[in-house]
Design goal:
Radius of gyration: 16 Å
Distance between the termini: 24 Å
Order of helices and strands: EHEHHEHEHEEH
Strand content: 15-25%
Number of strands: 6
Structural class: alpha/beta
Helix content: 25-40%
CATH architecture: 3-Layer(aba) Sandwich
Number of domains: 1
Length: about 200
């Protein structure tokens, strides 16, 4: 099984990247093949709603989204991580999410990410710093791609991984990330959530 972890932070080695990598390390120990992708420094033009992707099956903008779309198509599981920006995902990640319209073909065809497993990680400066609303943003995206969404499951059963402050120093937050990764692996392997 292949899992793609995307850090939607504009900071290459910040808390979000640390948390996503931590989840991937747990998944690799379980046996998944993992790929990490940071959106920091990538060129992702905002979607303009021109719908060329629906007519021509490709986006009119030739930028780093081409490789991202290929990585999304190739994965079985997807972990999206975002810093909290005003209670929502980062603009960097939102641009990427908006540009996935080519994965949603005509209404009479299956969505390309349909049935894959998705999960979210949100990082903020405070314990109640907008992580839950940011995870709702991430889950809305995953559900609109018709993906199966997992939470951090047993022990906490929050909406996903939630980090406060410095990711490497947040032992409680890292436990939610670890639980999320294990729950995702179980769903990928057995088609069901981890039971408590």
């Amino acid at each position: 099984m292949k899992v793609l972890g995307i850090s939607g932070s504009p900071n290459l080695n910040g808390n979000t990247a640390f948390a996503v990598r931590h989840a991937l390390e747990v998944l690799e120990k379980e046996g998944a093949k993992c790929t990490f992708l940071s959106l920091a420094g990538l060129e992702i033009h905002p979607c303009t709603g021109c719908w060329a992707c629906q007519k021509e099956r490709r986006c009119r903008y030739d930028d780093d989204m081409t490789g991202i779309l290929a990585a999304l198509r190739a994965c079985d599981g997807l972990i999206l991580g975002s810093p909290v920006y005003f209670g929502m995902v980062s603009g960097t990640l939102k641009n990427m999410m908006d540009r996935t319209v080519p994965l949603r073909p005509a209404y009479d065809q299956d969505l390309e990410l349909s049935g894959k497993v998705g999960a979210g990680i949100a990082c903020a400066g405070f314990r109640n710093g907008g992580q839950e609303t940011t995870l709702q943003n991430l889950h809305t995206f995953l559900l609109q791609q018709n993906m199966r969404v997992v939470s951090d499951g047993r022990g906490y059963s929050h909406a996903g991984g939630t980090i406060m402050g410095s990711a490497k120093d947040d032992s409680l937050g890292l436990r939610t990330v670890e639980n999320l990764a294990r729950n995702m692996f179980h769903m990928l392997k057995h088609g069901a959530f981890v039971k408590s």
